[in-house]
Amino acid sequence: MDFSSTVASQLNAGVILPEGLVIITLMVVLVGDIILGRNASRQLSYVAIAGLLGSVVALYFQWDNSQTIGFLGGFNGDNLSIVFRGTIVLSTAFTILMSIRYIQQSGTALAEFVSILLTATLGAMFLCGANDLVMIFLSLETLSISSYLLTGYTKRDPRSNEAALKYLLIGAASSAIFLYGVSLLYGLSGGEIRLDAIAAQLTDLSSGQSLGVAIALVFAIAGIAFKISAVPFHQWTPDVYEGSPTPVVAFLSVGSKAAGFALAIRLLVTVFGQVTPEWQFIFTALAVLSMILGNVVALAQTSMKRMLAYSSIAQAGFVMIGLVAGSDDGYASMVFYLFIYLFMNLGAFTCVILFSLRTGTDQIAEYSGLYQKDPLLTLALSICLLSLGGIPPLAGFFGKIYLFWVGWQAGLYGLVLLGLVTSVVSIYYYIRVVKMMVVKEPHEMSDTVKNYPPIRWNLPGMRPLQVGLVLSLVATTLAGILSNPLFNLANSSISNSSVFQTASTPVILSESIINRQSLSE
Amino acid sequence: MNLAEGVQIVSFGILAVMMLGAALGVVLLNQIVYSAFLLGGVFMSISGLYILLNADFVAAAQILIYVGAVNVLILFAIMLVNKKEEFKPVRNRWIRQGATALVCVGLLALLSTMVLATPWAVDTTTVNASSTIIQIGKHFFSDFLLPFELASVLLLMAMVGAIILARRDFIPERKATTTEVETALTLPERPRELSGS
Amino acid sequence: MELQLEYFLLLGAALFCIGIYGLVTSRNAVRVLMSVELLLNAVNLNLMGFSNFLDPVEIKGQVFTVFVITVAAAEAAVGLAIILAIYRNRDTIDMEQFNLLKW
pTM for the whole thing? Predict the structure, then answer.
């Protein structure tokens, strides 16, 4: 049996079918743009959305797949990764919907934007399923490098340049630090790359290894915390959110963050299972700082984009409660919340984009009296913001309740109480915007709103924006009332995932390889 | 101590001193061009260290990619942004530098303690010292196949993106009014100082 | 007396700390980028040391290093493109001047 045939029979390449579809779409967009020229770029972005939806369908058919390990242990397409990959793909599809008009109005090329965005998606998807250190590093860098490029995409604008430069330098430094921690893991495990193999080697911490593991843990957390923008690794967030094109911000705040959380769960639970109390302590500190600083600083913001930036820091703090809880329910609550967060946050960004396209500003004060001019926009933005704040019948409420309930079950009373208090603070600044839009008298309208252009949905590129707006509005409203299916989805993704039965993973893997060999013979 | 080991130790010492000296030069010298050339020195010394570690292929790759591509790219960038620039002095800068230096020395102490305290599971298997290329190639097409393919996408997109960002391009619709020309290729939102207040 | 793994690890740690120092204190954006390259090289030195002393048969560390080199090259290209773009707009590469965005 020669080398190539043994490898080909064991690859199980079907697990990356969704990613394969994304790659094909990427190539179609890139080559199609060269052949068809600039006029076809809008059609190409619809092609990209179709490809992403195809990828979601492929993900659906992989649900409960029995053989999740592909590429000789390099990729693990279990249910947990499927949920996260689905979240990321959906966030990209929404981002493309809202970016068509925005990018054209900024005068830059749309097709390249879409293809870089698809690459970022690809990196994020691989990151969710990455099962060895090389794969983690490479997919993390694919995501990061494409994010730097997207941030600096409007290259004539000094704010965009500056945001890209800051993001690149801080991001490159943090990934180098992460990589140092990863290299220590490779050494401490005696030359192992696969996550479960490393975990098997790191069981004995008594003999002098503990300092090395601690340093590897801290360095790895520094890299992860940068991706999910937890305080004190958040300094880049407000700047990048203000300076980069708004659709990019929407992607970074949902897709990139979901990938960071997927990496956190997989790396911490699998590799650092021996030091669980330590990393839970670090994440408690990060969660406390993020919730306090994110919510308090958001109060003082005058720009809508910056306010959403700080609010996303705070939301990351809430999600970390689920991580600290450390139970199956905890991880399920993270998945559930991230999925809801996808719709409400992207909905809010769609509204911000729509407003800035019509008026050219994103100052909060300029929103006053918008209700008289544009009821649909006001309604959608209000629903999304109230849902982000956690007002009862909306989706965000159920997500938060689940997180807090899980935290309470795990005995994290202080953390949950702090979460409740800071949620109340967050409701204040969300309500402030809503109140400004709705209750103002006609004479208190801002000048921008007075000169509000007539609403025309038939302009090129406005229709997808409208579709995205309505879809996210419906999803945010309905996900609250019909949250049970989502809840079951999140729970089954955790309970069927091999990550949380670490001890049994190697057995399953070797069995699957044996099965494969017997099949090929 | 036999001759081979002596040669190894001596060359390790020389390369280590060269690398550390050049690295310090990269961060401490004022002239950015000297830094760039010293960076090439760092890369070459590291390549020598790789040869001491029985890694011929990676040593060659280090020279080809780092010295041949990255360093040359950095030199080009320095020439493109070649403006005599007096950095305005910032007050209390030395405090920040001193604090950073202290933190770095502390970090070095921590990492050194860790390195010396950890019992590394050294594998004493003697391998026949043939070329490493075959082994690396086998890895690329078996268990590292997926990262290998992903790297191709990454490089493609880095190339496309770098070209987009670095090229000078025409602003579309030259004959549009001046205000529109001004806003082309920028964010649709106005800068804060214009839009606020 | 032979070459020990610890020598290479200490060398890598020293290079890493020099890189961190350069990263924080440099004012020239190009120099910050060079410091990032130093950091990545420190990591490579670690990986190669581990690969030779702990994993001499499979040499997975060497493969990892090749990937790190690839990514470093891509990152340098993107970084320099961004620096060029900002230099065209702002006419400076002094990190202290980049304060349009303030928190």
Answer: 0.93
